[in-house]
Amino acid sequence: FCRWNCRVDRTQEKKVGTCQLGKTSRVSTYFHHMGEELPIRGRKGSGTIFFTSCNMRCGFCQNGDISKDKDNGIIVSPRQLALMMWELRVEGCHNINLVGGEPTMHLHTIMEAITYLDNIKPTTEELQYIWSVKSDYFFTYRRNFSEATYQGMLNVPILWNSNMFMSLETLYILREVVDIWLPDFKFGNDKCSIRLARTPWYWETVTRNHKLIYDWGEDIIIRHLVMPNHVECCTKPI
Questions:
Q1: What is the CA radius of gyration of the chain?
Q2: If 0-12 CB within 10 Å is exposed, 13-18 middle and 19+ buried, where does residue 33 land?
Q3: Do residues 88 and 30 touch, judged by C-beta distance below 8 A?
């Protein structure tokens, strides 16, 4: 899935790669996110789902409790993940924002979850399980199915919120399902990415992926973190 190409068979759960994950996916929390960029959050928020773990080791990570703890949150099946997406959408969220940590390593769960969205009827028990990590559970959101459907089908814009340190294979799979791209662009060279995030091949990988999305004509908002003493080496090259 990601650029490391560690060749670990995660289904066997005997060895782990950089992400430290096995075959299951975990969600730390999900909620109506009003802190995203304005075109994304709109009036009712971006329906954000935070996956655990990451394939980078940024020393400045604002979600370090999620990205560095592979056991954070709850285990979710593809159907349970689909229920989170469904609930956020019918509660008025403008999109489903897949983030983390990093969502790339959870691609297998995400792709299968999307297949459940057209015809999903949650049970009370299923909802009670996922509510255990719903950060805004105590807020009341009116479910409006008419705003969440188009021609009788659930309409779920998918937003990919990622460090973009992924393989080409992953990018081509995502092209079929992602509607909005919200990628990070952190470092202007590999020296800084290795020192601050213990991540080689950063520049070549991320520039390639950003360029490809741009060439496809996709909707994309690029985030760049301007860091102290990294204006010349990172900000200006980016």
A1: 18
A2: buried
A3: yes
Q: What is the pLDDT, as a whole number, of residue 121?
A: 86
pLDDT of 152 reads 83
Q: What is the DSSP letter of 138?
A: T
Residues 6+ apart with CB under 8 A from 73: 26, 27, 28, 29, 50, 52, 66, 133
The H or E element spanning position 233 is: none
Evaluate whether 235 touches 187 at the Cβ level (below 8 Å): no
Residue 235's CB is within 10 A of a number of other CB atoms, namely 15
Instruction: Give the model's pLDDT for residue 119.
Output: 82
> What letters, b where the CB count within 10 A reaches 16 and e where it falls short, cover 84-104?
bbbbbbbbbbbbbbbbbbbbb
Q: Which residues of the chain have pLDDT under 50?
A: none
Q: What is the pLDDT of residue 146?
A: 87
Supply angle C-alpha 193, 100, 164, rounded to 5.
Answer: 45
82, 90, 125, 162, 180 from 5: Cα distances, Å: 27, 37, 38, 17, 25
Between CA 44 and CA 223 the distance in angstroms is: 22
Q: How far apart are CA 55 and CA 199, in angstroms?
A: 9
The answer to whether 102 touches 163, Cβ cutoff 8 Å, is: yes
Contact assessment for residue 46 and residue 36, using Cβ atoms and an 8 Å cutoff: yes
Residue in 63, 51, 50 with CA at minimum distance from that of residue 20: 51
The reported pLDDT for the residue numbered 13 is 83
Tracing tokens 């199915």 back to the chain, one arrives at: 145
In Å, how far from its chain's centre is CA 71? Answer: 17
